[in-house]
Amino acid sequence: MRKFILTATLAALGVALFASPASAVTDYHFKLFEKQSFQSVPAHPEPGTGFRYKGKMFDPKNRDNRVGSDRGYCKFRRHGVFCQGITHLDGEFGGLGDIKYRGIARPGDETFNVVGGSDDFAGATGEVEFRELNRSGTKVMTKWDLVVPDDER
Fold first, then answer.
1. How far apart are CA 50 and CA 71, in angstroms?
2. How far apart, in whole angstroms, are the C-alpha atoms of residue 45 and residue 140?
3. Exposure of 142 by Cβ count < 10 A (0-12 exposed, 13-18 middle, 19+ buried)?
């Protein structure tokens, strides 16, 4: 009788495992080099003023190989700069599609939350970190750490 109960319990567990849907995800971790330009940056930033930016994304090991673009808007706040943007990748790095991000930049911390995307990045979450490589902020290294649910793609 004990053997029968043990076998039935194991069989029921096996059926339950196969019946429950597995939520698979894809992790993306990569770096990109970006050349940025800025529009309408106020000479004396005050809360409420803002500016637009756009950039070209490149393979960090081959800066002649363009792999995407970036654009967004930032607004100065009392304790930092709120930015939101969209990066489009052509499929060579990470995947094909758009990645949306937003957050508050502070001196020494330009890490933003990934809040979605399209195509390969639909439903993406995670972080993107911008590290300025020059004083003017026109050369930037971006580090992407993303999780995308496979059922969203």
1. 14
2. 21
3. buried
Q: Quick one: tokens of 125? A: 């979450």
Tell me the pLDDT tens digit for each residue of 40-87.
888 888 999 999 999 999 999 999 999 999 999 999 998 899 999 999
Whether the CB-CB separation of 76 and 128 falls below 8 Å is answered with: no
**Bridge partners, residue 86, by sequence:** 71, 100
Separation CA 128–CA 102 (nearest Å) = 9
Residue 107 and residue 76: Cα distance in Å, rounded? 13
92 has pLDDT over 60? yes
Strand pairing partners for 55?
A: 36, 70
**pLDDT value, residue 94:** 80
Burial 92-115 (b: 16+ CB within 10 A, else e): ebbbebbbbbbbbbeeeebbbebe
Strand locations in the chain (E): 25-39, 50-59, 62-77, 80-90, 96-105, 111-117, 125-132, 139-149
